[in-house]
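User: I'm curious whether this sequence folds into something compact or stays loose and floppy. Could you predict its structure so I can see for myself?
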Amino acid sequence: MHAEIVMTGSELLLGEIVDTNSTMMAKMLRNIGLDLYYKTTVGDNEERITQVLNLALDRSPVVITTGGLGPTVDDMTRQAVANATGRKLVYSLELEAQIAARFRGFGREMADNNKRQAYIPEGALPLPNPVGTAPCFLSEDMAGRGFIISLPGVPRELEYMMTHTVIPLLVERMGGAKIIKARILRTCAVGESNVDRGIGDLMTERNPTVGLSAHAGQTDVRITAKAETEAEADALIATMEARVRERLGIAIYGVEKETVPEVVGRLLVEKGLRLGVVDT
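Assistant: Here's the prediction. I'll summarize afterward.
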């Protein structure tokens, strides 16, 4: 089983806001061992959202959308999900009552346009949202390709729904959580192409996988393993790390978030040395 995230909202494509939602979701999916293969962003257009969702279902059995569940005319995710999963969009009096109750809890009257949020793909599973007004849902594809989970774009609501509803639901459907762990080896002053020449063949292996990430003056080597238990993942990473270190040697100066100044400082302290700096 693997997943795809679809972010909706023209504001994302216009660069008006930075997408932090998919990063948070990706980490949560990684923590239960669910592979995330794709992330797609699409604007507020029903036809294009429907196309993106159909493509997502063609290649991923689990699709999670964020955004487009509000009460305004440009909130089109509900209709697009119904289109993609081959279902009608139907009105739910139960959801209307839930939305109205939320507004009463805020000490406000529900506006007529909020009734748009009570529409849901026919036969979809409602997912209660106790921290917002936008009802969430899970819609199974009528063609059997998989299912779409639709969540709000508001970060606070999204994180709550992912933590308390979506992650437990996915773990149940996966038959239990798995482990995905990563370890970063940090190199400097050798260049990405030189690192690739040294370990390029290791980057074709499947579990653990090895990937590179270039930064100014340094290249990170990322080792990622998937296993049933943390101990098994650690063992896979340790074996691959030993092979990488054998190839790259002293080019590796640290791990994870360590920096060159931090490592140099630690080595100076360990060896009882001092560093003198002259500025002329």
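Summary: The CA atoms of residues 198 and 276 lie 35 Å apart. The first strand starts at residue 2 and ends at 8.
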